[in-house]
Amino acid sequence: MKAQSLMAAAFASTLIVSGSVSAQDRSDWPESFTVGTASQGGTYFAYGSGWANFVAENLGVSGGAEITGGPMQNMALVHTGDLKFGLTTLGPARESIDGNSPLAPGMKMDNVCAMFPMYQTPFSVTALADSGIESISDIPDGAKIGFGPAGSTSDTYFPKMMDTLGVEYERRNGSWADLGTQLQDGLIDVVAFAAGIPIPAVSQLEVQTDVNIIGLTDAEAEKIINSFPVSEFIIPASTYKSLEEDSRVVSMWNFSIANCDVSEDFVYEMTKLTMENNDKMVGIHKAAKSSVPENYSKNNVLPWHPGAARWFNENGFKIEDSQIK
């Protein structure tokens, strides 16, 4: 009887969040769904797997996350329909739509639609405190720098940023968790992270050793902003115990994406659930503080999914017909 009561309470809780979803016609809804994320140890995996579970629990559809190579690969997987949902950054999204993805040169990935804004991805550098590296200019020639998984946002843009800043380096790739371990073991000198904050791998490093989280000078930030599709971003000192003051870096926006052919009603309900329950999303990951409707305007790259656009338009956030797939 106790177990039955617990199940009933859980079901009632689900109905409170999902409202009248269960009364709708679900004939065109998928039986299950998978969200393309990125490597373990990064924000995409934590955010994406938590969001998938949140949707599954409240909409009554089996769902989960899949580890991928990150934004660029997610664009390809969602475009082809191998995955129906994913997470991407607007820079890699633009390159993929234009047919400039290194994963499929010449293929214009135009069957990918935006669902909702996630958060900004700061580009930040971490080194061990005993390395003596406290600024970009301190990075020695030939330093081994980990840029994340091959094809990720960091791997796509951070090497070019380092080139722009005159840094000479040896390139290394791997999951964020693996690169964090390599940094701690002295196998690499620097990790160039591009992930929502706090980055799980950095938080884990702080527990085990002393690290320097390196920002940009005024001149460095200006040079990068003038050369890449990024904007200035401030990492609050409260984000990491290693920071004694706010750190200036640059960032790029992330959006959740769906294959444009996925059920309009299903995407509508996913968007509604996410946008109307920000407290639950922040409970999944602190970066979701930016996962609010007002940030829909940050999307200047992807067409909107009709289901997502319907929710935004119903709630006073105007998306023109020309912006909808």
Automatic annotation (TrEMBL):
<feature type="signal peptide">
    <location>
        <begin position="1"/>
        <end position="23"/>
    </location>
</feature>
<protein>
    <submittedName>
        <fullName>C4-dicarboxylate ABC transporter substrate-binding protein</fullName>
    </submittedName>
</protein>
<dbReference type="Pfam" id="PF16868">
    <property type="entry name" value="NMT1_3"/>
</dbReference>
<dbReference type="InterPro" id="IPR011852">
    <property type="entry name" value="TRAP_TAXI"/>
</dbReference>
<keyword id="KW-0732">Signal</keyword>
